[in-house]
From TrEMBL:
Protein's recorded name: Molybdopterin molybdenumtransferase
Catalytic activity: adenylyl-molybdopterin + molybdate = Mo-molybdopterin + AMP + H(+)
Top-level class of the enzyme under EC nomenclature: transferase
InterPro entries xrefs: MoaB/Mog-like_dom_sf, MoaB/Mog_dom, MoeA-like, MoeA_C_domain_IV, MoeA_C_domain_IV_sf, MoeA_linker/N, MoeA_linker/N_sf
Enzyme Commission identifier(s): 2.10.1.1
């Protein structure tokens, strides 16, 4: 029977992942860029909005002309015209003059603030009384308030969100340079695994992992394909992986990563051209049999990743290792921050020191939802640890998130305040 290499800490494996080369850049239309990662910093090519504009309906004025104005002592100014929407005003304000303006309208030359129409009243002819004083810049967005020319607005590696797409559109960027999406092939192994469209006979199970892992990859911006099932045959698996490594950036094998006599993955990884094992065994539960390797194909380094066959183990390993890999390949420079919420643990749980545990929990909202003072965390939820082995998929679907027990703890006690990583 094969044995595990020395169990590596999770952070050591993450360090290996960071050694893989980032994928090349490509230019794509802006409308196709949501969810993709920027290849380069984006700096403002011009001021935004590019002109001084009013944020209220009213009058554009010079602040010094209405200094001290109030209801009982209004400032009397002459209205010399209007500021048209969507065009530069033709009027120029001099001492004691004003111009009518609408929200979003461009301030005329000479004006430095705007007065709301509610603080104005006609005084006959072209004269207007303004009953509130304003400071320069009041009720105005200056030409570079949104962004100044040369300012770094989006960092390389950033995953573009809808608001980021809007920012790029504001500068007229019809296309954008992003990192290429990783191509991921997922292979399921085992004589006991059958396609999901088949009714499994006794002793066999449907191929759950390939579908769930592919969905996770697509959420991370990758192009994932299910590359089929491979029997418990080392030669067949080697031929499959050698072929896939020529075409895909990442090849994920589900099953066959343990140390049993029928688990061939670690041997096959080294048999693939340029194959090298970086990790075989992690101080992690569930997910101890995880394998990380690399191969050389088509002049590039490819990642080989072996996930446990048990469904919960495979999904948790994919969250802990495959997601960071996909983010890194797309140029991410800072670790992804999973959304977390404070919760109070409903019962005690044990863990082994020196191993990182990922515990599935279900959250129940509490009535108390705001801090009562001080720096202490206020629980928003109760966290109920879910039981079940690593081969049960319903334990993952019933969970709202994961509680991470770090290597330096031996578990948690009932009533402890914990932070739960939410599933996206």
């Amino acid at each position: 029977m094969k044995s595990f290499l020395t169990l590596q800490p999770v952070e050591t494996v993450i360090g290996h992942i960071r050694t893989f080369p980032v994928l090349c850049a490509e230019r794509i239309p802006l409308d196709a860029a949501s969810g993709r990662r920027l290849a380069d910093d984006f700096t403002a090519p011009a001021d935004l909005p590019g002109f001084d504009r009013a944020t209220v309906d009213g009058y554009a004025v010079r602040a010094r002309d209405i200094f001290g104005a109030q209801e009982g002592n209004p400032a009397l100014v002459e209205c010399v015209g209007d500021c048209p929407m969507g065009a530069a005003p033709s009027v120029i304000l001099h001492e004691g003059q004003t111009a009518r303006i609408l929200t979003g309208g461009m301030l005329p030359q000479g004006a430095d603030c705007a007065v709301m129409v509610e603080y104005s009243r006609p005084a006959g002819g072209n004269l207007v009384e303004l009953t509130r004083s304003q400071a320069p810049g009041d009720n105005v967005v200056l030409r570079d308030d949104d962004a100044a020319t040369g300012a770094r607005l989006l960092a390389a590696g950033r995953r573009l969100r809808p608001q980021d797409i809007g920012l790029l559109a504001a500068f007229g960027q019809t296309d954008v340079v992003v990192r290429r999406s990783p191509r991921v092939a997922i292979v399921s192994t085992g004589d006991e695994v059958v396609p999901i469209e088949e009714t499994p006979p006794p002793g066999k199970v449907r191929d759950v992992n390939a579908h769930s892992i592919a969905a996770l990859c697509r959420e991370a911006g990758a192009q994932a394909v299910r590359a089929g099932l491979v029997r418990d045959d080392a030669g067949e698996l080697e031929a499959c992986l050698t072929r896939l490594a020529d075409e895909y950036d990442v090849v994920v094998v589900s099953g066959g990563s343990s140390a049993g006599m029928r688990d061939h993955t670690v041997d096959v990884f080294t048999a693939v051209p340029g194959g090298e094992i970086l990790t075989h065994g992690v101080a992690l539960s569930p997910g101890k049999p995880f394998i990380l390797g690399r191969a050389a194909a088509a002049g590039r380094t490819r990642c080989l990743m072996g996930l446990p066959g048990h469904t919960a183990s495979a999904l948790i390993c994919a969250r802990v290792f495959l997601l960071p890999l996909l983010h890194h390949l797309q140029g991410q420079t800072e670790p992804e921050i999973a959304p977390r919420v404070p919760a109070r643990l409903t019962r005690s749980i044990a863990s082994a020191q020196g191993r990182r545990d990922y515990l599935r929990v279900r959250l129940t909202p509490l009535e108390q939802t705001a801090p009562t003072g001080g720096d202490a965390l206020c629980p928003l939820y109760e966290a109920d640890p879910l039981t079940g082995t690593s081969g049960i998929i319903t334990g993952m679907t019933a969970a709202d998130g994961l509680l991470v027990c770090p290597e330096n703890r031996e578990g948690f006690n009932a009533g402890d305040m914990v932070m739960v990583e939410l599933f996206q």
